[in-house]
Amino acid sequence: MDEGRDTPAAAGSGPPIAGELSPVQRAYGRYATHFLGCLTCRDIDRSCAEGGQLWRDYEATSDAVGRLMGG
Predict the structure, then answer these.
(1) In this structure, how many other beta carbons lie within 10 angstroms of the beta carbon of residue 54?
(2) Which residues, 6+ apart, have CB-to-CB distance to 36 below 8 Å?
């Protein structure tokens, strides 16, 4: 009954990602990472120039991929 337990994962670590992320995933990841660390962006009444640009980059990437896929 006294089975060994796995040691807890190091803080901030997660499962390895197999392969590369898509351009849309990478663009959204850049935006999300900024947003989570930026107090200005997290305030519903404000936003910062960098966060706005990252969001526009994500939208442009998403639109471009959609056009390439025929959507």
Answers:
(1) 22
(2) 42
Question: Whole-angstrom Cα distance, residue 33 to residue 13?
Answer: 15
Its sign, for the CA torsion 70, 64, 30, 26, is positive
**pTM strictly above 0.70:** no
For residues 41 and 35, the answer to whether their CB atoms sit within 8 Å is yes
Residue 47 is predicted with a pLDDT of: 84
**Domain layout of the chain by residue ranges:** 23-68
- The CA distance from 52 to 59, in Å, is 11
Would you state the structure tokens that stand for residue 15, as one six-digit string? 């499962």
CA angle, residues 60, 53, 32, in degrees to nearest 5: 85
